[in-house]
Amino acid sequence: MGGKLIVFEGVEGCGKTTQLNRLQQWLQPLPVAVTRQPGGTELGVRLRRLLLDEGAGCQIQDRAELFLYAADRAQHVEEFLKPQLAAGAIVLCDRYTDSTVAYQGYGRGLDLAEVEQLNQIATGGLESDLTLWLDIDVGVGLARTRRRGAADRMEQADLAFHRRVAQGYAALALAHPQRIVRVDASPSEVMVAERIQTIVRQHLAC
Length: 206
What we know:
It is a single chain. 56% of the residues lie in helices and 13% in strands. Helix 2 packs antiparallel against helix 3 (62-86), helix 4 (97-107) packs antiparallel against helix 5 (112-123) and helix 4 (97-107) packs across helix 7 (159-175). The mean pLDDT is 94. It is an alpha/beta fold. The chain has a five-stranded parallel β-sheet with strand order 2-3-1-4-5, sandwiched between helices.
C-alpha cells in the first residue's frame, strides 16, 4: 500500500490531537508518521512560536501571518511529508491547507483566491488523501481550550472570528466532498474515535 496523507481539521478545542493519537494507536502495526502544521520541522517549530506564542513580542499583520504559515507548509512538505509518503507511510497531520483557508481566508477575511494560490505554491499541489473535519460548536470548543489552561494567540481571538472559521470549514466540506469527511465531534471521545476508525477503514480499503 502506498503512502496516505490523512489530515485532522477543525476549530479550537474540537479534539484533533486526541483523536489523531487514538488513530495512530489503532493503525499499528502499519507504518504511521505523526506530524503537525505549523511545527513539523525544525524551522516549523520556530515559526510556530512566532505564530502562536503570545510572548513572541510582536504584532503579526494578517497577510504576514498568511505567509508565515505558507513558509512552514513549504518546508514541511519537502522535508517531511513527501519523504514519508514516498516511503509508504500513513501520515497523520494535525492541520494542513484547509486550516489556512478557514482561519486566514474566512477568519481574517483575506482574499480566498490568493489564499488558495499560496497553498498551491507552498504544497506543490500535494493534497490530503482524506481530511477528517471534526465539527463541534465553537463555544463548546473554546470552553475546552480554557479548561486546558493558557490560550495561544489564535485561541484568544474573539468569538466572531472563530464563528467565521467554522463557516469556512463548512464551506470547504461542501466544495470538496471527495476528500473532506465531516465527523460530529460532540459525542464522547470513544464514540468519535470509533466513527473515525470506520471512515479510515473504508478509505484504506479503496
